[in-house]
TrEMBL record:
<comment type="similarity">
    <text>Belongs to the mannitol dehydrogenase family.</text>
</comment>
<keyword id="KW-0560">Oxidoreductase</keyword>
<dbReference type="InterPro" id="IPR008927">
    <property type="entry name" value="6-PGluconate_DH-like_C_sf"/>
</dbReference>
<dbReference type="InterPro" id="IPR013118">
    <property type="entry name" value="Mannitol_DH_C"/>
</dbReference>
<dbReference type="Pfam" id="PF08125">
    <property type="entry name" value="Mannitol_dh_C"/>
</dbReference>
<dbReference type="InterPro" id="IPR036291">
    <property type="entry name" value="NAD(P)-bd_dom_sf"/>
</dbReference>
<dbReference type="InterPro" id="IPR000669">
    <property type="entry name" value="Mannitol_DH"/>
</dbReference>
<dbReference type="GO" id="GO:0008926">
    <property type="term" value="F:mannitol-1-phosphate 5-dehydrogenase activity"/>
</dbReference>
<feature type="domain" description="Mannitol dehydrogenase N-terminal">
    <location>
        <begin position="24"/>
        <end position="251"/>
    </location>
</feature>
<dbReference type="InterPro" id="IPR013328">
    <property type="entry name" value="6PGD_dom2"/>
</dbReference>
<dbReference type="InterPro" id="IPR050988">
    <property type="entry name" value="Mannitol_DH/Oxidoreductase"/>
</dbReference>
<keyword id="KW-0520">NAD</keyword>
<dbReference type="Pfam" id="PF01232">
    <property type="entry name" value="Mannitol_dh"/>
</dbReference>
<dbReference type="InterPro" id="IPR023027">
    <property type="entry name" value="Mannitol_DH_CS"/>
</dbReference>
<dbReference type="InterPro" id="IPR013131">
    <property type="entry name" value="Mannitol_DH_N"/>
</dbReference>
<feature type="domain" description="Mannitol dehydrogenase C-terminal">
    <location>
        <begin position="260"/>
        <end position="431"/>
    </location>
</feature>
<dbReference type="GO" id="GO:0019594">
    <property type="term" value="P:mannitol metabolic process"/>
</dbReference>
Amino acid sequence: MTGNATRPRLNRVVAAAGPKAPVRIVHLGLGAFHRSHQAWYTQHAGDSAEWGIAAFTGRRPDAAQVLSEQDGVFTLVERSDAGDTFEVIGSIVEAVDGNDVGRLAALLAAPSTAIVTLTITEAAYATDAADAEHSATPLGRLAVALAARKENGAGPLAIVSCDNLAHNGTVTREAVLSLADTLDPGFADWVRANVSFVSTSVDRITPRTTGEDIAEVAVACGYDDAAPVVAEPFRNWILSGAFPTGRPRWEDAGAVFVEDLEPYENRKLWLLNGAHSILAYAGQLRGYATVAEALADPLCRDAVEKFWDEAARHLPDELGVPEYRAALVERFSNSRIAHHLAQIAMDGTTKLRMRALPVLAAERAEGRPGDGAAGMIAAWMAQVTSPADVKDPLAAGIAEANTLDGDRRTRALLELLDPGLAADPGVLAQVHRLQDRFTASSTSASR
């Protein structure tokens, strides 16, 4: 297949990518972030020739279809204000429709499969019994495939969550065990004995690919790539947990393995992801579309700094928080990475529980009001007024709250995040008051 008379379609021959590595990693949630992060790290491991990835899509088969036509290879564009660099990534050796539970079960039943990685979004970790029985969700399909591994006697493996959840390994373990117990209590015992759950902190800003990005790759690289990925140069991966049947040498590419992940994941969830949430809600109210635009606005920047000051008080000094904050400002200011606020704003009820609520609780426990954390919640409330703009697992509850007025609406929205907060008159008044800062300013913001 060719893009025009002279330009070939990217594939392994065009890329001179060499033979495919054997599948030893299965990934659920094939998307841009997985390809810019775990796939990149796997390609840059010293033993990458031994570790191929079979990646399954999440909601739709589109990404699998496009990548399959390219033998799994794609171009990673690293974009900074200094310019772009291009690299072909070939660590994905099979791209599969996420609904193909049979193929997923076959791969997990193979003793050679050692690792399952996940980028399924934070909201996907909520489960119920029907998920396993009908393979309705990524974790439901994973439970069915793990049962096939048990039946085949294929031995232990590691499951590695790469989603922005505090204690994501523990959350994954509890969800999978709940589903396994629904299928068969004996199966849940097998999971406890044979499956390790690795916690991680992941970081790399990866905006959605645009038509302009596809055109740029064609001109710069001389081939047509229907599935390039654009990312910032920065990347970070911190992992904690056991890999009972081995893993790639990801440390060759800069991954860090630690005993205690919690301080690192809190630094990332609060400082990076928390700032993103503030910018997503306050920035859209101010008429901005990207992180770089919103950060340049004094009101948005001040809201971020207030929250960072609060979060920093609850992080260990050895994490180098001042340097981390300075690096975030530089990264967020990268005007050539169009990190869209609407994308970040999705699933707000899930994200705010991890980003705002822990800092608010910690501040209040020490006798401070926590206006920075409460301001993040207030910005969300001020922004989620249009049903068309709300993409959230609790969208119906948000819509119902939006039929109410004044502090009744504030209370209803707070109840979606934490009923205890909604019952606290002080927090209710605080969040209700702080909304005015964003709604009043949104009408006067200039572009």
